[in-house]
Amino acid sequence: IHKEYFMGGSDICETNTFNGTTISQGEYKMQAVVYELNKKGAELAKQAAAEVTKAEPHKPRFVAGAVGPTSRTLSVSPSVEDPSYRNVTWDELVEAYKQQISGLVDGGIDLIMIETVFDTQNCKAAIFAVDQYFLETGKERLPVMLSATIVDNSGRTLSGQTVEAFYVSVKHANAFTVGINCALGAAQMKGFYKALADLNTGWCHVYPNAGLPNAMGGYDEDPEIFSNNILDYAKDGLLNFVGGCCGTFPSHIAAVAKKVKDCPVRKLPELPKYPSMQLSGLEPCFITKEAGFQWVGERCNLMGSAKFKKLVDAYKWDEAMEVCMAQCEKKADILDFNFDSDLIDGQSAMGKFMRLCVTEPNVAKLPFMIDSSKWPVVEEGLKCVQGKCIVNSISLKPGEEEFLRHARLCMRYGAAVVIMAFDEKGQAATFEDKVRICQRSYTLLRKKLDFPPEDIIFDCNVLTIATGLPEHNGYGIDFINAVAEIKRTCPCVSFSGGLSNLSFSFRGLNSLRDAMHSIFLYHAVPAGLNMSIVNPGGLPRYTDIDANTRKLAEEVILNKSADGKHVERFLEFAENVRKPAPAAAGGAAGAAAAKDAWRNGTYVERLHHGLINGIDKFIDGDVEEARADLKVPLNVIEGPLMQGMGIIGDLFGAGKMFLPQVIKSARVMKKAVAYLTPFMEEEKRLAALASGEDPDQPKWNGVVLMATVKGDVHDIGKNIVGVVLGCNNYKVVDMGVMVPCEKILERAIEEKVDVIGLSGLITPSLDEMVYVAEQMKARGMKLPLMIGGATTSKRHTAVKLCTKYDHGVIHVLDASRSCTVVSALLSQEKKNYLADLKEEYTEIRDEYYATLIDKKWKTLKQAQEKKGQIDFSKVPPKPKFIGNLCVKDVDIKEVMEYIDWTPFFQVYQLRGKYPNRDYPAIFKDERVGEEAKKLFAEAKEMLDWVVKDGLLKCSGVVGIWPANTVGDDIEVYTNEDRDTVKCKFMGLRQQLDMGESTYWCQSDFIAPKGVAPDYISAFACTGGLGCHEQRQKFEEKGEIDKAILLEAVADRLAEAFAELIHLKIRTTLWGYAPDEKLSLDDLLKVRYQGIRPAPGYPSQPDHREKQTMWDLLDINRLTDGKLELTESFMMMPSASVSALVFAHPEAKYFSVGQVNKDQVEEYSARRGEGGIEGTERWLGSTVLGYEKK
């Protein structure tokens, strides 16, 4: 593959090591071989580079070691309940990256590519690891390429940063190139890339996907479209390096190389003679002269706010966050955080609060100042924040060696730094000492470390004046003069100072102190002071201070007056004003009132504001007010709360909100629902009592008819929707499975239903749904039609269904959305809701057909010429058993050992969040863990009952037969003579042209006739014998929950039985892997030899192939008709599995995708059909790559 890309025109290819860290590989228990994976990956790529370079010495090829982002993030909490929780630490990431880099370097890479960065803090950890590795090994540092990925049209990374903020955050890496990859297609990325290129003083790169992923998970831009999009960049002179990411093949690279070869290269911008400081949070912050004075908020400093200290002492982190938020509202430019205190673990507190802050968008958008006199506390803060911070502070106080060590670490973490005017002798108080120490510090940083001068901030020590001691009188003017002199002699630096020290003598006289600070800034800012730690919003304007106060304060700050008695006068003035300040108090009350003005709105407005802004402080009270007004708790959820979440969904979809904000809103919603839950439970209890006493109760909110369409027997998802709707007071008319269209429509009229809901799992069900929609239109019906099920999609609904029926066809993604949809369809907003939906679906449909026109196809002959090349010298051995074997009443206890429980929880829509997504880790999930435990206990109890009473039976048929390939079909023979064909399994071949080198068909995995004797196995099995009868008993007793649970358990048994049968085929019946000893985890992750694709699914989407299998295995006779096919080729019982078994070690799963008409015609002819209409109907719209007539 590397060689194909090199030959296609690549100068640089990445190694196949994207997930090559112990963190990512740990999910597969492969962390022990991480070094080997990376080293070997690098060696393979280098071998390809060497071969191609040897052939084309004028164009040397290079290898970039691919370092991915891992599957964990330092900036976003995986816990909705605890935003400060992380499932990985900085140190763990650094160690994991360092191990990966070791293998890559030893394998011979030329560059390091840290790519697809969705969290800049992960990227910074990788940069840190690169530095650490080369420092420890003493090897020459390799060039580093850094590449971010943006998640949507907001232009932000997953962790919320803009591309400009990302660049500022990683600028310290001195990267070979900085750019963007993956993400959107080239056309959509140009604006964001240009913003990065405009800011980047070095080389830029871009390697986008081949467009946005389509509904099937593929990419639609062919080489011509892709290269034209890239050419648009090149013609504008924006490119230094360019390539392709997801969906781009060697043909894409070749097309790009050809298109851009004569285009101008992006010229590097001229470096400014005097660069200015660049900081970042979620957004960039440029400390230029034009930006003016920067206010550094001090209220999250334990020494700057008594209130904040009290809250931290009491572990009231949410309320402490309110203090932080208040500074943002008062327009602080930078936020200072200090946790130095006698009884507080500063390191722990800093880490926790920083992790909280980076998940609060209004806070995280600003740069942070990590403030501590203890270096471990500073370092803890730096390990938690993705933006470019300021470290406050380091100094020469511990000596040059320690000073330079701290400064070097600041560079490696990518932080600017405040240098205090201290040296080994102490604090600089005089003008001369301030200048001397700061100049010495500047010289050391520049000459010893080449520290960026624009990242140096000097704090020349604002000291207390007017203390009554004469030696203190000049501290104010000495600071101002020192700033001016240092600015003159130390280019590019900034200046900061803690204003509160200046007026420390006048504690308690806040208005006087504020006036002093404002007057001090009036004189210090022109001298060069460009930032200060203050209480933002608390200072009066210089011109608003009364003339007498201004004159007296100016005299003491500048230490200058006509008679020299200015200090005495000021002390006397201060004594006269030492009294309460009612005006100040009133002003504070006014500010508070303005801040909380949203509290004056209606409860709907307040609920929306709280949800959107993530404020949960008042949520219980507002929800109670809504409950009291709306009477029904559910109406609060479906009304104002769901409206608020709808607004959030719209903002998120439009790129106006990003992930951290949505997570915060979810926490508020959860709290609101938790408040209402006890009321809803009590309401349900009373309703049940009322129902028993009064047959006319309860009053339904509406009537919904649900049915699984003709030919389809799957209904677990439909039943869950029914339960959800029932709990929300809708009457559900459940018609069951395999319901013909006529019966659905007749019953809908009979029951006078409000909505019809159709469910289906298999592809033919989609066409049956189209038929139902057509018949509804023919009958003049006006009921809304809901569409759901695993095989359905919004895209299919928009393209194939909406045009068939005019009164609303709505795709429902999952059960959780059903109530919202039904509620909207039965509300006064129905007309607007359907109009909006129609507009959305029209856009989807138009886009689909536009895309369809541009598809490129291989002819069937061309695709066959590029068939998979398999080494048939490795053909599996002759099976130990030939023929069919019926296995009846297999011990369920043995089958149970092979159950995969993860899909069981997904049936109930219990989905844990990473890393607790799958069984058994789902039990640890904070959101669904407890419910999953309860459900699992019920399932185990059901299984014990099944075993004890023998309620379910596991039976099946297995067959192994001689076989060879002829063209795209597999001939199965009656015996080893291979002269009589018993049946044929027909194949479909990949045909959509995306520049791939191989186009697969399942027949490729069987040896061609005449090449070598080969074999194929097949089986069909069920775990559901007896399920239907027991389910009926449950339903008669109204125990629908047990009926659903029994079906889900039966499905698990069927899948487990299939796992067991396949194991027996591999190890004994066929015996091509007799020594296999894999764990259940390995089995479920398909780490065995060979594959077992099912007819009707991606590798052969024609369900009719099941009939061929049924006949070959003689299933009807051997199972006494207990395992059978419906007319739509669905298996009965529904808890059944069938598959073909391919034994070749190179066999792999693939998806045919869409096929073109020439293949459909040829395939239909091979099947002996008179025309293509039947084949088109059975393949369905998702497989046909053209619009059938």
Write a structural description.
- There is one protein chain.
- With 1189 residues, this protein is of the alpha/beta class.
- It contains 42 helices and 32 strands.
- Helix 4 (90-106) links the parallel strand 2 and strand 3.
- The radius of gyration is 35 Å and the shape is globular.
Which percent range describes the beta-strand content?
5-15%
How much helix, percentage-wise, in residues? 40-55%
In order across it, which strands form the biggest sheet?
18-17-14-13-12-11-10-19
Return Rg in Å.
35 Å
Topology readout:
Blueprint: H1 2-8, E1 12-14, H2 22-25, H3 34-55, E2 62-67, H4 90-106, E3 111-117, H5 120-137, E4 144-148, H6 163-170, E5 177-185, H7 186-199, E6 203-209, H8 223-235, E7 241-242, H9 250-260, E8 277-280, E9 284-287, E10 294-301, H10 306-313, H11 317-329, E11 334-338, H12 346-357, H13 361-364, E12 368-371, H14 375-382, E13 390-394, H15 400-413, E14 416-420, E15 422-423, E16 426-427, H16 431-449, E17 456-459, H17 475-489, E18 494-496, H18 510-527, E19 531-534, H19 547-558, H20 566-576, H21 582-595, H22 603-613, H23 619-630, H24 633-653, H25 659-693, E20 702-708, H26 716-727, E21 730-734, H27 741-751, E22 755-759, H28 763-778, E23 785-788, H29 794-801, E24 809-811, H30 815-825, H31 830-853, H32 860-865, E25 883-887, H33 892-896, H34 902-907, H35 929-949, E26 953-966, E27 969-973, E28 981-985, E29 1014-1025, H36 1027-1036, H37 1040-1069, H38 1080-1084, H39 1105-1113, H40 1115-1118, E30 1124-1125, E31 1131-1132, E32 1136-1141, H41 1157-1166, H42 1173-1179
Parallel strand pairs: 1-2, 2-3, 3-4, 4-5, 5-6, 6-7, 10-11, 10-19, 11-12, 12-13, 13-14, 14-17, 17-18, 20-21, 20-22, 22-23, 23-24
Antiparallel strand pairs: 8-9, 15-16, 25-26, 26-27, 26-29, 27-28, 29-32, 30-31
